[in-house]
Amino acid sequence: MAEKFAVITGASSGIGYELARVFGENGYDLLINSSGERLERAASDLKSLGFEVITVQSDLSTYEGVEQLWREIEQTGRPVDAIAMNAGIGVGGDFTRETDLNEELKMIQLNVTSVVDLAKRVLKQMVARGEGKVLITSSVAGAMPAPLEAVYGATKAFDLSFAKALRNELKDTGITVTALQPGPTNTDFFHRAGLDNTEVGSEGKYTNDPREVARQGYEALMASKDHIYASSLKTKVQGELGRFVPDSFKAEQHRKKAEPKEGKEKKSA
Fold first, then answer.
1. Relative to the CA of 4, which of 72, 135, 199, 212 has its CA 20 to 30 Å away?
2. Annotation marks residue 152 as catalytic
3. 149-158, pLDDT tens digit by residue?
4. Total structural domains within the chain
5. Which of 152, 206, 218, 229 is flagged as catalytic?
6. What pTM value is reported for the model?
């Protein structure tokens, strides 16, 4: 048993899996969570690397799913030294004319409500101990209006603001809070969000490697950084320059990247 214990949500694949791996490589025992069946395969892969891994399959888009996760965290009898709240989904399309309300409400529950719920529980424990590290996965999209991903972008803006506010509240407690802001990353996120036939879904995602995103996120957390744009130089430059660009311009640029390719072809014809 390692001295340190980390919890990673959304850990069955993509950035979450890579976060679990990098925590394990740095001496943490792991408790990983996801709602899907791929969780056990991810756990098997991580165990083959020599890590101690506990799995909790629960749906964090429900209150009961968060309850189950927290109950099983407490049953380990171990304090949480670090937590990466990474679970999230996206929904792509025109908010008024295309997307499904139920899908968007589920996304809000997962991307926002579960983060607040889990943070309330784990931070009380950390404050009582006077130490702990919290990584919250936002997005570069959280710093701009996101047409054709309007609700998703708003959830990630919430995560970013929430992380920064918590960081300020906890600045003298020994607890670190860091926001991870990946750019488009090579995972199945865009397929699940219905964005395969877009620039960001078919081309832009290859800008960032999930392994590198996770490594940079971990290092930023350990260095007590406020946030990190991860992982490519292009993403970092876009993130930094975005602070000086009007929201109207950023919105239009995001729309072009998230617009179906056939829509662009019709406009240019």
1. 212
2. yes
3. 999 999 999 9
4. 1
5. 152
6. 0.89
